[in-house]
Amino acid sequence: MWKFIVLTLAYLVSTTNTQASDNAVILVYHHVSEDTPNSTSVSPRIFEQHMQYLADNHTVLPLKTVIEKLQNQQALPDKTVVITFDDGYQNIHQNAHPILQKFGFHYTIFINPALIDTLNSQLTWQQVKQLQKQNVSFANHGNAHLHSLQKQTNESKQDWLSRVTKNVTEAEQLLTEKLGYSLKYFAYPYGEFNQAFKQQLTQLGYVSFAQHSGAIASHSDFSALPRFPAAGIYSNINTLKVKLNSLAMPVSKVLPQEPELASSIKQVDLTFQINSDDINPSQVACFKSGDKIPHKLSDGLMSIKVDIKAKPGRHKVNCTVPSKQLKGRYYWLSHPFFVPTNQGKWLD
Predict the structure, then answer these.
(1) Which residue of 49, 88, 107, 306 is surrounded by the most CB atoms within 10 Å?
(2) How far does the signal peptide extend, from start to end residue (predicted)?
(3) Is residue 307 part of a domain?
(4) How far apart are CA 255 and CA 272, in angstroms?
(5) Which of 247, 272, 290 is the last residue of a domain?
(6) Res 10 pLDDT > 70
(7) Structural element, H or E, at residue 271
(8) Are the CB atoms for 86 and 185 separated by under 8 Å?
(9) CA distance between the termini of the chain
(10) pTM beyond 0.85, yes or no
(11) What is the pLDDT at residue 303?
């Protein structure tokens, strides 16, 4: 009997270690300022509070280190976090960088290289090269900050795909010329993508990052990796703590695969299967816009009716469930949907 207990405990420890080491959380910021749009901003004071919490409770690693370790199924420290910024704003250099240097944190800025040195709100190339020497890496946000799903008048699907892909590849070429390296990491502007675009980038060797929520693991979709927003209404440190401790939910049979919806769509049937013995599927809770939405469980398959109401913009369903073994930690799955206006436009 004692042998059985020892073997059982050894199995539990091994399983727990695997879950914790095959996991990371990526944060995304835009502005660190009190004079920029509230929805994408965090004040320097709150930002420093975030960084202090990370220093006390987490391991902050470079994005490249985390991506390569997960792709190669190599262990990460428990509670690994990556810090990223979208758009190369001046206030990152002025307000965020001194705080990040204070803690010795490496971070990544996804920039639009064609906008650098052209707008007063953006970094200069001189600043970019200075930051590059100080634990900062730079990656691709497209030459232009496009709504990538926006099609031009009478534009075919193939012409659209060629145009938005060119926006990425030309930006990568310019980054390589200016910085001397190419990460081939791309962050979707506005977090918007569809199956055709992400598959094209994957074929070209890119790892791509979105803006829906969730942790990442070796089993994640590296063509649209989730990141937790940490500004605006998401900057509260108490709610952010739960996200920083989250685990990537292992799922399969996810439908629909296509996140781009027609403006006429009013309801979507979202289904997925959970693949983990550390999860009790009956404890899954799903939310949209903060409201809990019902779901059904049949033969291990979760089914959720998502009410879109034909409302243009970006929608997402977040599902969480507690870990059986890691007390106080939750598996997290986020699934995005993108809806244009009746005129085929995409909202900022």
Answers:
(1) 88
(2) 1-20
(3) yes
(4) 7
(5) 247
(6) no
(7) strand 267-274
(8) no
(9) 62
(10) yes
(11) 97
Q: Hey, CA dihedral for 40, 42, 43, 47, is it positive or negative?
A: negative
Q: What is the pLDDT of residues 265-302, one digit of tens each?
A: 999 999 999 999 999 999 999 999 999 999 999 988 99
Residues 316-336 have pLDDT tens digits of 999 999 999 999 999 999 999
Helix/strand/coil percent split, the chain, to 5? 35, 25, 40
One-letter amino acid for residue 8 of the chain:
T
Q: Helix (H, G, I), strand (E, B), or coil: what is residue 175?
A: helix
Tokens 């250099």, located at residue: 93
Same domain, 233 and 289: no
Contact between residue 314 and residue 229 where contact means Cβ atoms under 8 Å apart: no
- Predicted confidence (pLDDT) at residue 72 exceeds the cutoff of 90: yes
Among 247, 280, 297, give the residue marking a domain's end.
Answer: 247
- Is there a single domain that holds both residue 82 and residue 231? yes
Considering the domain boundaries, does residue 346 fall inside one?
A: no
Task: Tell me which residue range forms the domain holding 145.
Answer: 21-247
Check which CATH number belongs to the domain holding 283 and give it: 2.60.40.10
Could you read off the pLDDT of 209-232 as tens digits, one per residue?
999 999 999 999 999 999 999 999
Contact 304, 276 (CB under 8 A): no
Pair (116, 265) in one structural domain: no
Structural domain count of the chain: 2
Q: Are residues 265 and 131 in the same domain?
A: no
127 and 211 part of one domain: yes
Q: Is the dihedral of CA 166, 339, 291, 47 positive or negative?
A: positive
Q: Dihedrals φ, ψ of 191, to 5°?
A: 75, 15
Could you tell me if 235 and 307 lie in one domain? Answer: no
Asked if residue 68 belongs to a domain, the reply is: yes
User: What are the angstrom distances between the C-alpha of 158 and each of 6, 202, 341?
Assistant: 60, 17, 22
Report the candidate in 272, 266, 270, 314 with the shortest Cα–Cα distance to residue 289. Answer: 314
> Do residue 95 and residue 81 come from a single domain?
yes
pLDDT higher than threshold 70 for residue 13: no
The domain that holds 241 is classified in CATH as 3.20.20.370
Specify whether the CB–CB gap between 107 and 135 falls below 8 A: yes
The type of residue at 69 is K
Look at residue 299 in the predicted model and tell me its pLDDT. Answer: 87
